[in-house]
Amino acid sequence: MTESGSFEIRFWGVCGSHPMPQKSKMRHGGNTSCVEISVNGYTLILDAGTGIIPLGKELLARAHEKEDRVSALLLLSHYHHDHTQGFPFFGPVYTADSKLWVLGPELENVSPKDVLADVMHSPYFPVRLRDLNAELCFETLNEDDEILLGEEVGGVKVLHSGDPRPWTSADLVRIQLVQSTRHPGGVLVYRISWRGASVVYASDMENYPEGDEWLVSFAQGTDLLIHDAQYTDAHYWGEAPGCANTQGYGHSTISMACQVANAAQVGGLALFHHSPEYDDERLDQIEAEAKALFPEALMAYEGLMIRLLER
Ligand SMILES: [Zn+2]
Ligand SMILES: [Zn+2]
């Protein structure tokens, strides 16, 4: 649990596809996808790329300082390596008093528990998922499910399609999701809302050049849109020197992300899941180009903190 009464987003891994810990990109960072959201005392973790490894150390340090235990919800968008490869090195899962909910979609008949059990056994890894010390609660999410967080629902409540929803408290944290086919194998997009503020996490998402109506609708009016922006236009269309055409790879261009941000009238846009080939200098140039398309755009970097609501 974090301090109640706040709504903060902190980036721990922003690099797409694979880690790239090179000196030339240390300002933005070379860890893969991981975003921490602290909302009304709950710790949410979006994806378990290698950014979750330093986050795990931080969560253990915070818990130690408060003589508390680590308690968090891990929300997985999909199961490509760059979104799961940090999990076996996430320190809190080796601590007996940690509690972790792991939620994600069923993709190609594979649940979040199946995915992690598949990578955590010999010969791939020396520790099996079932031998971890922490209390792990797995839940498979389907489109139209909703997750509520708050005392009124007893902590964490996953609502499936057709479940009664009698709760009306504005103080509940609400997590909505939609499943998209705009990434190979499918991907979940999350919207987290509390006290009128919200953030949308749309990593690994290839929009149409003219924009995606469903995403514009889902992200409408959100305070912060975290959006896949892996490629420049020239890279995407194969027009940059040495770059293959990447149409169909499942990732957006910076201009596609800005198009959605403009159409959805979002408050801010965090360009996310950068191409590992782009160094800090290149990312700075791209950020300047993005601001011309959407003035509130910024290039996400490790350590970036965005506060939606103050304590
Ligand atoms: Zn990815
Ligand atoms: Zn992916």
Indicate the topology:
Blueprint: E1 7-13, E2 34-39, E3 42-46, H1 52-65, E4 71-75, H2 81-84, E5 99-105, H3 112-119, E6 135-141, E7 146-150, E8 155-159, E9 173-180, E10 187-194, E11 197-202, H4 213-218, E12 224-228, H5 233-236, H6 254-263, E13 268-272, H7 280-293, E14 297-299, E15 305-309
Bound molecules: zinc ion (2 copies).
Summarize the structure.
The chain has 311 residues and is of the alpha/beta class.
Characterize the structure shown.
The chain has 311 residues and is of the alpha/beta class. It has one domain (7-309): Metallo-beta-lactamase, Chain A. It is 19% helix and 28% strand. It contains 7 helices and 15 strands. It has helices spanning 52-65, 81-84, 112-119, 213-218, 233-236, 254-263, 280-293; strands spanning 7-13, 34-39, 42-46, 71-75, 99-105, 135-141, 146-150, 155-159, 173-180, 187-194, 197-202, 224-228, 268-272, 297-299, 305-309. The strands form 2 sheets. An 8-stranded mixed sheet has the order 8-7-9-10-11-12-13-14, covered by helices on one side. A 7-stranded mixed sheet has the order 6-5-4-3-2-1-15. It is globular. The relative contact order is 0.16. The model has no long low-confidence stretch (mean pLDDT 94). The protein binds zinc ion (2 copies).
Order the strands across the largest sheet as they lie in space.
Answer: 8-7-9-10-11-12-13-14
Ligands bound, unique: zinc ion
Average pLDDT level: 94
CATH architecture: 4-Layer Sandwich
Distance, first to last CA: 14 Å
Helix content: 10-25%
How many individual helices? 7
Q: Beta-sheet strand percentage?
A: 25-35%
Structural domains: how many: 1
Contiguous runs where pLDDT drops below 50 for at least 5 residues = none
User: What integer value in Å does the Rg equal?
Assistant: 19 Å
What general outline do the C-alpha atoms trace?
Answer: globular
